[in-house]
Amino acid sequence: MPQTLTTLRQLPRAEYASKLAIVYPKHYERKLSNSDLHREVEQNAAILRLAGFTPGTHLALCLDDPLEYFVVFLACMWVGVVVHPIKLKTTEEEMKDTIQQANLETIVCSDVSGKKSADTARTLAKELGLHCLLVSQNINEGIKIQMQDLVLKSMSFEDRHYKLEPSNAAVAIHVNSSQTDKKIVTYTHEQVIKTMELYIHLGNLTGSDVTFLSDHPSNCGNLIMQLLGPLSLGSTVMISPTDIQNEPSRFIERAIPLGMTWLSASPPLLKVLCEHPKANKLYEKIRFSWCSVSEPLNAKDLAEIVQSKEKFHVPHQVLLGREETLGLLFVYELSSDIVEGAAALSCSPIGKPVNSISAFLVDPEGTHTVEDEGELRIVGQYFSSDACNSSVEIDGVPCNCIKLNWICKLKEELFYFLDTTQVYLEKKRQLEERLREEEKARQEAERAQEEEKARLEEERQKGKQVNDATDEADTSRGENGSRLERKLSKAFRGLFSASGSGSEKEGSQKQKAVQNDSTVANSFPVPSHPRRKSADFDSYPKFDDREPEYFKVGKSTFSLAEIDYIIQKHPATSEAKSFLMYSNGKHEAEVHVALTLNPGRRVTSELFTKHLKKWGIRGKALPVHYYVCRKLPRNESDEQTREFIKNHCLSMPQNKVTEAYSDPKNSKIHEKDPGEEQQSRKSGSWLRRSLSKTFHNGDQAEDSTDGSLKRNSSKIMQIIRRASFSS
């Protein structure tokens, strides 16, 4: 398992760049590697930054297409935007209540007309005065937020180049706490990542597995278990193109060639897949299966699932009961023992619910019952054969109870009890360690005092013996002897006073320790159940959140996706579009090149060095970094990766430019003459003004047909033509 994530901004993982991430068989099949997914997410994140979205901004995400939803969701995570999911088949009134409850100002929907959710979102945007972001998807450009109606804002480098913290909010879920009351539960990046790690551990998921998304990712449980979790491990996810329950054959025909190994489905869907005549080949490779439900199951439901399971053999069949939010309800192994144990309950739900979700539970270390009203989520080891016990009475009424090896109670915040338990144990450990250190220091101080006292006593006895033996000889030095006695008496007085103050200090420290102990006990309630010893909650070594590259053109700073946007504004130019330079802080310049290549176009060393010379690159060899953006050659080969295309198109050395000129006259290293340097400054300032006007003038960027923008575009075209390769 790779190092743990710190924020969702690190998805997709860089170490899985060339691995296949998503397969989406829609009208045309899309296959995205982690690198391809990274590029689309970065492009949309750059557009959000240009539109003025900053960490902590809230928006409603209403997209029917699951791939569009996932890409825009990750783009929001990169920027730090808090997502309010709008689920499928949400009515106009429910959508309006969600927007008004959170006081949202922005909604994201599809640009395709005719979709009910998109039409409803656009209608509400006009009615409530919301800012509506439209998302388009095509085979050439992929998924992209449209910029026609966006007002581009001027942002400094510090505003755009920020670091996200694990405590930043990620998702805000609207939960019906009662029939008339709704509440918003916000989850941070760290909480979502903890849930991901829990799913990965319980589901025995590995990077070699092939999974599928059975439901829309607006359900956070599906998003985390079936998309974010596999993506963090480098697994491949197949997004279901149709309603599987109505057309299971299409799904099975597409899933068999992929070699699906990890299945997660609801009980009705699992039953359909189990009973389908073509499913035998599908289940030959499946090694793990989840059955996910939203409510606790009774014995009848368990029996139906076991009967449908008899047609195929899966090593691990796990049943997961969970809410629509990120919390878990029940996790246990599906076996005959469970069915027999549940049969004793007839058709009563496992764990008699109180109000909405609560249950009566038996303390595994005792016999008393834990009663709690409100939300209750249980994460535990699997049931044993005596899991169900109906002998407990609450207020004289017999109740069905569950006995688990480990119980986790939660209120409003995800993993509150787990976090509280960990914090409590950590505080308790720190307190015990501090008390031990203080006790050790006190003992060492006492030992040192005893040794010092013994040494002084020994010196005093020796001095007394010497004084007695040489009383007459020391008569002439009586004053010196009295001075020594005064020093000794002063030392003893200091020693006794220090000992007294030390005891007082020790007493006050003990009193403070007792107070701190009681404070900790009040602040962090003592858990009534032992924490399960499991590897999934161990601390992993954390690494820094890598930031995307930013480049400077003059005094302006842009990301690679923003440069790509500039390039796309002028599709007539098909050769090299932009060469950028910046200093890396080590008194050495680096050259970053954004390339747009047509199929078959080759970049030779001679043309490249000639172009570098035009930009005034003189002196020693410089490191060169290549970025291939758009218009990549398309072929049916399985080797079609970004690395393969880069190696195919670029014939230059990949690490360094060995010579900066092709002209023999300039073979020697020399500095630029003043006239050439002045001309270079003029061209650099011209480029800076042109890009600045294009990006940072909101009125001009709002309407792409405005005359001033056309003039700026023509200037940029002139710059690009100057910078393009000679054919």
UniProtKB/TrEMBL annotation:
Coiled coil: none annotated. GO terms for molecular function: medium-chain fatty acid-CoA ligase activity. It comes from the Eukaryota. One of its GO terms (biological process) is fatty acid metabolic process. Residues 442-484, 497-541, 660-715 are annotated as: Disordered. Residues 513-522, 706-715 have a biased composition (Polar residues). Residues 442-462, 474-484, 665-680 have a biased composition (Basic and acidic residues). InterPro entries: AMP-dep_synth/lig_dom (IPR000873), ANL_N_sf (IPR042099). SUPFAM superfamilies: Acetyl-CoA synthetase-like (SSF56801). Residues 15-381 form the AMP-dependent synthetase/ligase domain. Keywords: Ligase. Transmembrane segments: none annotated. PANTHER family: ACYL-COA SYNTHETASE, MEDIUM-CHAIN ACYL-COA LIGASE ACSF2, MITOCHONDRIAL. Belongs to the ATP-dependent AMP-binding enzyme family. This is AMP-dependent synthetase/ligase domain-containing protein. The lineage of its organism: Eukaryota, Rhodophyta, Bangiophyceae, Galdieriales, Galdieriaceae.
